[in-house]
Each structure stands twice: as C-alpha cells, then as structure tokens.
Design a protein that fits this description.
The protein is an alpha+beta fold and 89 residues long. It has one domain: secretion proteins EscU (name from scop, 3-Layer(aba) Sandwich), CATH 3.40.1690.10. 42% of the residues lie in helices and 15% in strands. It has a two-stranded antiparallel sheet with strand order 1-2. The longest helix has 17 residues. It is globular, with a radius of gyration of 13 Å.
C-alpha cells in the first residue's frame, strides 16, 4: 500500500539577504496540514505541486534550494507574486 499522507514544504526568499530561496518548513501528515493552515491564515498563497514538494522535502531546514530547482521555484515565486497582485498587495 502506498503512503498517501499529505506532504508540505514552505520556502522563503529575501532578495536583500538570501542568495536563493530556502526551505523554512516541511512535514507530512498532521504537520503538513498545519503548515498549509498557517500559510492560509497569514494569506500566504499555497500551490499544489507534488513533485516539487517531494524534492524540497529532501532538503534540510534553512538549506538554500539547489540550482537544479531554480526554474521550478521561480515558477512558484511568480505564482506568489501574481496572487499578491490580485489581492492588491
């Protein structure tokens, strides 16, 4: 039987001090649900990307994403930017 638990990962990027986005939270099951709920409570856009979340989950906390994931994470950042623009932020 395959493991169907929910998985979540959060990234943060501060262009003034970070060379690249970094993993700030990750987890499965109840922890994943809490990560998603916290993001939604703080009006942080959430994107469902199972392949990317699996790759991000393999990284250590506060680890910057590797170059191989730049394109995928850039798409996430563009998604967040668009969502913020739609909300007027």
């Amino acid at each position: 039987m395959s493991d169907m638990r929910k998985t979540a990962a959060a990234i943060q990027y501060d262009a003034t001090k970070d060379m690249a986005p970094k993993v700030t939270a990750k987890g499965q099951g109840i922890l994943a649900e809490k990560i998603i709920a916290t993001a939604l409570e703080h009006n942080i856009p959430v994107k469902n990307d199972p392949v990317l979340v699996q790759m991000l989950s393999r990284l250590d906390m506060d680890e910057q994403i590797p170059v191989e994931l730049y394109k995928a994470v850039a798409e996430i950042l563009a998604f967040v930017y668009r969502a913020n623009q739609e909300r007027g932020e």
